[in-house]
Specification:
Two copies of one chain form a homodimer.
Chain A lengths: L8 H43 L6 H17 L4 H25 L9
Helix pairs in contact in A: 2-3
Chain lengths: ~110, ~110
């Protein structure tokens, strides 16, 4: 066994707690980045509505997915997971914008 | 109209392209953070399996969700979205670990 590896249940618990702190830090960063992404997609939605730009752009979406799959492979993340995750976020963002639109004025749906 | 706002369709397109670059940068950061998170949950799974630690910890999960909802509110992100997103990631991570376990040796399911 490698000397830095825990050699008792107590040491394993200590290591688990340290890893959980890292997971919590990463999750906080993820939430803040999602908040920033959401601000940008809101801005895109407003721009598209005001200037009558097309609401959806399937080619852009294909490019986004292909790029995220490549980035996932480079960083040793399952590309299927990355694609599924991206689709989840895009779907939720659209749903949220539709709900926001229903509460206020009608607007185009951003797909960025 | 504010002077920094686009005043023509051409200017709106230019602004849209700039925003898309920001969205792409954020998405790259999100994928890299997800890759890092996944490495940690893999480590947790291995630790739990080796030392016979409990696979699931519902109290920790409740604390995680409550904390992420608070962080979402602070950063002006819909807390429902943050919770749904967290549940999606946890479910996918568990599914992935189960699949990885089925291909190799049996292991406990990490829920961190």
């Amino acid at each position: 066994m490698c000397p830095t590896e825990p050699d008792s249940t107590e040491a394993a618990w200590q290591k688990l707690l340290r890893i959980r702190q890292s997971i919590d830090n990463i999750d906080a960063a993820l939430v803040h980045l999602l908040a920033e992404r959401f601000k940008f997609t809101q801005e895109v939605g407003e721009l598209k509505a005001r200037f009558g730009l097309p609401a959806s752009d399937p080619e852009r979406e294909h490019r986004q997915i292909a790029r995220l799959r490549e980035l996932a492979i480079e960083s040793n993340l399952d590309p299927e997971f990355a694609e599924k995750w991206f689709n989840f976020v895009v779907t939720e963002v659209i749903r949220h914008h539709i709900r926001a639109g229903a509460e206020g004025e009608e607007r185009e749906i951003p797909e960025d």
